[in-house]
Design goal:
The structure is a single chain. With about 500 residues, this protein is an alpha/beta fold. It has 14 helices and 10 strands. Strands 1-2-4-3-5-6-7-8-9-10 form a 10-stranded mixed β-sheet, sandwiched between helices. Helix 8 links the parallel strand 5 and strand 6. Helix 1 packs across helix 14 and helix 6 crosses helix 8. The longest helix is centred in the N-terminal third of the chain and has 25 residues.
Length: about 500
Amino acid sequence: VPSVATAIPEGPEDGTPEWWQRELTNYLKTREEANRQFADPAFQLRLAEQSLANSTASREFQDEHGFINRGNLCYHWSETCAGDPWRYPGVDPFYDEVGNFTEVLFFDRDCARISGRVWAPLDAEPGDDLPGVVITNGSVQAPEPLYWWAAQALVRAGYVAMTYDPRGQGRSDTSTPDGTQGSNANPEVFWNGTVDAIDLFHSTPDQPYPHNETCAASVPAQYALPAAAPFNPHHAVLDRDRLGLAGHSLGATGVTTVQAMDPWEGRLAAENPVDVIVAWDSLRADFVPRVPAMGQSGEYGLVNVPFGTSPDPEDHKAAFTAWEEAGQPVMQFTIQGSTHYEWSLIPSRPVVNFSSTSWVDWGRPMAEHHTVAWFDRWLKLPHEPGYADADARLLDDAQFCERFSFYFRSARNFPDRAGTQHVDGDIRASCLAGDAASPANPDPDPDPGSDRGVDADADELPATGGGIGPYALVAVILAVGAASRRVRFRT
């Protein structure tokens, strides 16, 4: 059954003072997190401390393992490359109370050395057979720590998770021994690298990771990797028959590509092992839909250009429509006032900052809630936490009604566990009309992350706007050359 949507666009007519004022208010939400961080001395001190520690650790990593990654802008994991500084061992109680990670170093298929981590709950025991999720970074040098929020949330929900730096990014090698580059210079590393990461994630003592042995016998001496992980250190608690993928930006393209692979290109499974994906900005329409997929999108894109006129409300639903037509379960939503950086927690600095809505009470919690619930819906078993209420959490529109974009339609088309099909082409319109799929369900953030040491009361956050007339906003838009068009980039 195809979804039907008619309510959006909503609000003032384009070009009116009321429309411009609404756009100004919405656009200034992109400054929420930067303003919060700049107003919080504890955050700035914590970031400075972690940046210094990461830079020191990076030099030690280079000396110990000899990785060739100084061409990577974020090899040091400091400053804007540090991620949320409150999520590190030693300052985050997560590592003492909930879960931890084990570092893994391995060769990709072309013998570049890859740095990653496998995360698991502290109380996991051999034979628990927990579902697993592999997370693939975005491009333009986005390093692994920017996505630790997702790994922590998944471990908290009873998953084994893997994060890693694709070739050309973070602490992984910039290139292969023969000089083949990574990152944006060779975007294939975001899907081929995901397949290699799945092989490492699924490796065991009986089925060791295949590329380490091959590369160890063929690479020059300076590429040797004595500390290569022969298999997943948490293999004993992982159910290899339940696998989800999450990816951001070019990593979202990567996971969309990998879910469609047929024949399977990995070495440890005969068939594609991927059961479900979540694509953070954004799900792609140009691949065969094979598994349930959730797409999450930002309004203002990579370069954060204001709108000069209302965009096409169906603009973010191309992939949704492709999945719907293929008969695969799908959900797509756009976060109001959001940017491309809602999913990569990049701290802001005075000269260079990457705008996003509040990490505390807007974009990141909404993304986390739906990400975990979507994986729970398709990966959890009846005896596991998160199984029984996964549908209710996915249908809890009232909790997030005001956070759905009023520019772009959010939609769903998937069955609940009882077999009832939930079809809605405009989730925001439904919840505003009082037709939300379920009543509000208070969901205190179980993973406070950057809340530590800061005041998370939205009413006390620094003001992000107000008092500027619509014609002042017009001047701003003209100044960036976007009065009548919107420039949108993808990574």
